[in-house]
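Now for a typical sample entry:
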Amino acid sequence: MRFYTVHRRSRGVLAEPDVEFVKEGFSWPAAIFGFLWALWHRMWWTAVGLFVAEAAISLLLDHFEADTSVEIIVGIAVAALIGWAADDLRRTALTVRGFAVVGVVAAPGLDAAEQRFFEETGLTA
Protein backbone atom coordinates (compact mmCIF):
# COMPACT_ATOMS: atom_id res chain seq x y z
CA MET A 1 0.00 0.00 0.00
CA ARG A 2 1.34 3.41 -0.96
CA PHE A 3 0.48 6.81 0.43
CA TYR A 4 -0.15 9.78 -1.86
CA THR A 5 -0.51 13.42 -0.93
CA VAL A 6 -3.13 15.22 -2.99
CA HIS A 7 -2.38 18.76 -4.10
CA ARG A 8 -4.99 21.03 -5.67
CA ARG A 9 -4.87 24.43 -7.33
CA SER A 10 -8.01 26.24 -8.33
CA ARG A 11 -7.81 27.85 -11.76
CA GLY A 12 -10.67 30.29 -11.33
CA VAL A 13 -14.44 30.27 -11.47
CA LEU A 14 -14.98 28.64 -14.85
CA ALA A 15 -11.91 26.47 -15.31
CA GLU A 16 -11.37 23.03 -13.82
CA PRO A 17 -8.87 22.83 -10.94
CA ASP A 18 -5.49 21.15 -11.24
CA VAL A 19 -4.99 18.08 -9.05
CA GLU A 20 -1.62 16.38 -8.52
CA PHE A 21 -0.89 13.17 -6.64
CA VAL A 22 2.60 12.70 -5.16
CA LYS A 23 3.55 9.35 -3.69
CA GLU A 24 5.53 8.95 -0.50
CA GLY A 25 8.81 7.09 -0.58
CA PHE A 26 11.82 6.54 -2.79
CA SER A 27 11.69 7.79 -6.40
CA TRP A 28 13.61 5.52 -8.75
CA PRO A 29 13.18 7.83 -11.77
CA ALA A 30 14.65 10.75 -9.79
CA ALA A 31 17.56 8.62 -8.57
CA ILE A 32 18.36 7.38 -12.07
CA PHE A 33 17.73 10.52 -14.12
CA GLY A 34 18.49 13.28 -11.59
CA PHE A 35 18.01 16.73 -13.04
CA LEU A 36 16.13 15.32 -16.08
CA TRP A 37 13.47 14.04 -13.69
CA ALA A 38 13.14 17.56 -12.27
CA LEU A 39 12.78 19.00 -15.78
CA TRP A 40 10.05 16.45 -16.55
CA HIS A 41 8.09 17.73 -13.53
CA ARG A 42 8.69 21.39 -14.51
CA MET A 43 10.84 22.03 -11.44
CA TRP A 44 13.22 24.38 -13.22
CA TRP A 45 15.24 25.67 -10.26
CA THR A 46 15.49 22.23 -8.73
CA ALA A 47 16.80 20.92 -12.06
CA VAL A 48 19.42 23.67 -12.19
CA GLY A 49 20.43 22.96 -8.59
CA LEU A 50 20.74 19.22 -9.21
CA PHE A 51 22.74 19.78 -12.40
CA VAL A 52 25.13 22.19 -10.67
CA ALA A 53 25.52 19.88 -7.65
CA GLU A 54 26.20 16.83 -9.82
CA ALA A 55 28.67 18.77 -11.98
CA ALA A 56 30.45 20.18 -8.91
CA ILE A 57 30.79 16.74 -7.36
CA SER A 58 32.15 15.37 -10.63
CA LEU A 59 34.68 18.22 -10.89
CA LEU A 60 35.78 17.71 -7.29
CA LEU A 61 36.29 14.01 -7.85
CA ASP A 62 38.32 14.77 -10.98
CA HIS A 63 40.33 17.46 -9.20
CA PHE A 64 41.30 15.13 -6.38
CA GLU A 65 41.90 12.29 -8.84
CA ALA A 66 39.52 9.99 -7.02
CA ASP A 67 39.71 6.28 -7.66
CA THR A 68 37.00 4.73 -9.83
CA SER A 69 35.55 2.87 -6.86
CA VAL A 70 35.21 6.16 -4.95
CA GLU A 71 33.46 7.74 -7.95
CA ILE A 72 31.02 4.84 -8.07
CA ILE A 73 30.29 5.00 -4.34
CA VAL A 74 29.80 8.77 -4.44
CA GLY A 75 27.58 8.44 -7.52
CA ILE A 76 25.38 5.85 -5.83
CA ALA A 77 25.20 7.96 -2.65
CA VAL A 78 24.18 11.08 -4.58
CA ALA A 79 21.56 9.11 -6.54
CA ALA A 80 20.18 7.67 -3.29
CA LEU A 81 19.94 11.13 -1.72
CA ILE A 82 18.13 12.49 -4.76
CA GLY A 83 15.78 9.50 -4.81
CA TRP A 84 14.85 9.92 -1.15
CA ALA A 85 14.40 13.70 -1.38
CA ALA A 86 12.62 13.80 -4.74
CA ASP A 87 9.01 13.55 -3.64
CA ASP A 88 9.53 16.16 -0.93
CA LEU A 89 11.16 18.46 -3.49
CA ARG A 90 8.15 17.93 -5.74
CA ARG A 91 5.71 18.76 -2.93
CA THR A 92 7.63 21.96 -2.20
CA ALA A 93 7.60 22.93 -5.88
CA LEU A 94 3.83 22.37 -6.05
CA THR A 95 3.33 24.56 -2.97
CA VAL A 96 5.39 27.33 -4.57
CA ARG A 97 3.24 27.05 -7.73
CA GLY A 98 0.08 27.64 -5.70
CA PHE A 99 -1.08 24.11 -4.92
CA ALA A 100 -2.51 23.32 -1.50
CA VAL A 101 -2.47 19.91 0.15
CA VAL A 102 -6.08 18.75 0.29
CA GLY A 103 -5.65 15.19 1.46
CA VAL A 104 -3.71 11.98 1.83
CA VAL A 105 -4.79 8.75 0.16
CA ALA A 106 -3.63 5.19 0.76
CA ALA A 107 -3.94 2.92 -2.27
CA PRO A 108 -2.00 0.19 -4.09
CA GLY A 109 -1.32 2.44 -7.11
CA LEU A 110 -1.88 5.87 -8.60
CA ASP A 111 -5.06 4.93 -10.49
CA ALA A 112 -6.64 3.49 -7.36
CA ALA A 113 -5.57 6.55 -5.33
CA GLU A 114 -7.16 8.91 -7.85
CA GLN A 115 -10.36 6.89 -7.95
CA ARG A 116 -10.59 6.66 -4.16
CA PHE A 117 -9.91 10.38 -3.66
CA PHE A 118 -12.42 11.58 -6.25
CA GLU A 119 -15.12 9.17 -5.06
CA GLU A 120 -14.69 10.16 -1.41
CA THR A 121 -14.48 13.92 -1.94
CA GLY A 122 -16.79 14.39 -4.88
CA LEU A 123 -14.23 16.68 -6.51
CA THR A 124 -13.43 16.46 -10.21
CA ALA A 125 -10.04 16.23 -11.82
